[in-house]
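Q: I have 199 residues here and want to know how they pack in 3D. Can you give me a structure?
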Amino acid sequence: MAHGKEFGDAMEQLWNGEKELLGISNFEKCLQNKDFDSCKGVAVDALLSAKLKALERAYDELKLLKRGCKIIDKAPLRSTTSVRTASLQMMAARSRGVPCGEHGVPGLPRDVSEIPDSFGCEACAEKIKKSLGGGKLVTIKPTEELLLPKYRGKDSGWYHHVVVVCNGRVYDAWTGRVGETIAEYKSQWARADKIDFGF
């Protein structure tokens, strides 16, 4: 914790190194200049998309580490080193004021009375993801009808809904700061069998 600034600087250097290693600097130069000489290196790299996805996952993990909040696997701890590491992670997370697996977005959770005809779920999910330090945005869609069925007993009027899935928990504006397990979340929807949750 005492070396937070140094750790942040190290992460910045790591990111710049990763950009060079993966050729992302060439990609940025291509987008900026839009000429053949700047883009020829990018054209050769057919795996750029896969590299970017891998880098995004690695970056999410680094953000969690920088925040001092990493969810510990449910597998039993096998060594005193693992126990020490787990203890340090939990203490670091508590000292930051936001426990692991809990977001700190102001104004959330909202009251269920605000569900009907609400909007902005994607922007809300982005804020939750940023506060958590990671996770994946997932779009929930109906499979047979135009609109999603009732959510938490309310007609939403939504064509789709965007949530964050992080470490086996689902977060949106109505789940609360600690989210809900996937099973708990799905149970909040009427006719869940008519929904493509994507998780």
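Q: Anything worth noting?
A: The two ends are 35 Å apart (CA to CA). Residues 37 and 86 are 49 Å apart (CA to CA).
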